[in-house]
Amino acid sequence: QVNLVESGGGLVQAGGSLRLSCTTPGRTFHWYAMGWFRQAPGKEREFVASINWNGAVENYADSVKDRFTISRDNDKNMLYLQMNSLKTEDTALYYCARDRAYYSLGSPEADSYNYWGQGTRVTVSS
Q1: What's the CA dihedral at 45, 51, 53, 57 to 10 degrees?
Q2: Are residues 46 and 36 in contact, defined by beta-carbon separation less than 8 angstroms?
Q3: Among 8, 38, 60, 101, which is disulfide-ready with 92 (CB 3.0 to 4.6 Å)?
Q4: What is the pLDDT of residues 49-103, one digit of tens each?
Q5: 9-24, pLDDT tens digit by residue?
Q6: C-alpha dihedral sign at 101, 107, 111, 113
Q7: Going by DSSP bridges, is the β-strand pair 18-23/92-102 parallel, antiparallel, or unpaired?
C-alpha cells in the first residue's frame, strides 16, 4: 500500500494563489509519474496536470494551462501544484495520484493511476 498525503489547500480569493503539496514515504517515488486531479461538488473527477518520473514532461488540462504549474522534487519525495490566477471554478477537492507503471510519461486518464491521496480542499471565493 502506498500512502499519499496532500496539503496546502484552503480558502483564497479569486485571482490569488495556492501551492499544493503531496508526499509519500519510501524509496520508489522517483520511479513513477504523478498526477493531480480534482473533483468539484456535483461533478466528475477531472484531470488537472501530470508530470513524468524525472520532471521532464508535464501535461495540463486546457482549463488550467498557463495558470497552474506541476513540479516534483524526487530527493524529497514531494509533488507540487502551484496554482495562480485562481478562479471560482477551480473550487474542488484536489487529489494527487501515482501512476501504475514504472518510468511512465504521465497520463490524463484516471485509470492510469492506482494510488490516490485523500484530497485537499481548495475554495476560491469571488
Answers
A1: 140
A2: no
A3: 38
A4: 999 999 999 999 999 999 999 999 999 999 999 999 999 999 999 999 999 998 9
A5: 999 999 999 999 999 9
A6: positive
A7: unpaired
Sign of the Cα torsion 110, 112, 117, 118 reads positive
**Dihedral of the alpha carbons of 7, 102, 60, 126, in degrees to the nearest 10:** -10
The single-letter DSSP state of residue 105 is: -
The two beta strands, 78-83 and 113-116, are unpaired
Q: What is the DSSP string of 45-97?
A: -EEEEEE-TTS--EEE-TTTTTTEEEEEETTTTEEEEEE-S--GGG-EEEEEE
How far is Cα 15 from Cα 100, in angstroms, rounded to an integer?
35
> Taking CA 72 as the corner, what is the angle to CA 68 and CA 74, rounded to the nearest 5 degrees?
180
Residue 17 contacts residue 31 (beta carbons within 8 Å):
no
SS3 assignment, position 26: coil
What is the C-alpha to C-alpha distance for residues 117 and 22, in angstroms, rounded to an integer? Answer: 8
